[in-house]
Amino acid sequence: MAEWKSLPDGIASDIRHLAVELRALKDAAGLSLARLAERTRYSKSSWERYLNGKALPPQHAVISLGKLADADPARLMALWELANTAWHGHDDHDVPVAAAVRPAPEPSAQPAEDTPEAPDTAEAPDAPEAAPDGPVGAHLRGRPKWAVILSCGVLMAAGGVFVALHRTAGPRDTTDPAGTSTRQLDVACFADSCTGKDPKQSGCGDPWTAALTRRGRIYIELRYSDACKAAWARISWAHPGDIAQVVGPGARTFEGTVHYDTDNYSAMVAAASPSAARACALLTNGVRFCTGPGGTQHLTEAPNPPTPTP
């Protein structure tokens, strides 16, 4: 394998240890950067940043490389947790890990959701907190049972900007597959720090359906992200005024109301596993129906709702 570049001076030792470990795994697997990008959802340039200490790899990227090299997942997760803590110890979360030698932050881009792979882009921005009357209505009830695991960066977008993006991209929690070829999965929150945030804007780009039910033609799904350790509800084939509601640990609840389309999704709740949450639909006719707790099987998603006619 080609000789590695020296890691930048000034990066935290825990981040350095993770980068060195990932380099060793890449060499052990005998993969070039191009081949590594083909085998994972992360682009060649993203891996170049991760392996050279320029950016912190997402947890899912570490897991993916570990599987390719048959590494001990428990050891890798321990290294990642230490590196992630060191990363979030910086005051400015938009500055790359090697901030001491790279003073300018990398540009940001929107993350990808539900895509098999995501080629090169810059790092994803933090997400805006969903406002009660916004596209993702958040109504807090109860308190969480478990403490904050990791913190994340400050919020970056105002509500009006989010509404504009929301109307452009559509209310579903996944991006158009045709537009994901230039996007990259980089989560902006983890576990408790995802609570109340929008999954699409937070880079939780590996969602899958952990529970699903329907009443008539209306579907309600419990969506889950392993990378973010968070869950949310998504309603499809609904009517304006219908609500998607997620119920998490400690009965913490967030809602998303269908405003102008036929579907929408709620903000997230922290969930160590899909079984810690369930999704409910609250219809304008007073009917309420819910899924059971999420399971471990990746279920087939609800079909895309029809596009409303002008």
Beta-strand percentage?
Answer: 5-15%
Q: How helical, in percent, are the residues?
A: 10-25%
Q: Quick one: biggest sheet? A: 5 strands, antiparallel
Summed up, the helix count is 6
Mean pLDDT: 74
Q: Which value, in Å, is the CA radius of gyration?
A: 20 Å
Uncertain spans, ≥5 residues at pLDDT below 50?
Answer: 90-170, 175-183
Structural category: alpha+beta
How many beta-strand runs?
Answer: 9
Shape: elongated
- Give, in order, the helices and strands: HHHHHHEEEEEEEEE
Terminus-to-terminus distance: 58 Å
- The domain count comes to 2
Overview of the molecule:
The termini are far apart. Strands 1, 2, 3, 6 and 7 form a five-stranded antiparallel beta sheet that branches. Helix 1 (13-29) packs parallel to helix 4 (59-68) and helix 4 (59-68) runs antiparallel to helix 5. A hairpin with a 2-residue loop joins strand 1 (208-215) and strand 2 (218-225). The protein is of the alpha+beta class. The chain has two domains: 13-87, lambda repressor-like DNA-binding domains (434 Repressor (Amino-terminal Domain)), CATH 1.10.260.40; 113-310, no CATH class. It has helices at 13-29, 33-39, 44-51, 59-68, 73-87, 159-169; strands spanning 208-215, 218-225, 230-236, 243-247, 253-257, 264-265, 269-270, 278-282, 288-290. The chain contains six helices and nine strands.
Brief account:
By secondary structure, the chain is of the alpha+beta class. The chain has six helices and nine strands; from the N terminus they run H-H-H-H-H-H-E-E-E-E-E-E-E-E-E. The chain folds into two domains: 75 residues, lambda repressor-like DNA-binding domains (434 Repressor (Amino-terminal Domain), Orthogonal Bundle), CATH 1.10.260; 198 residues, no CATH class.
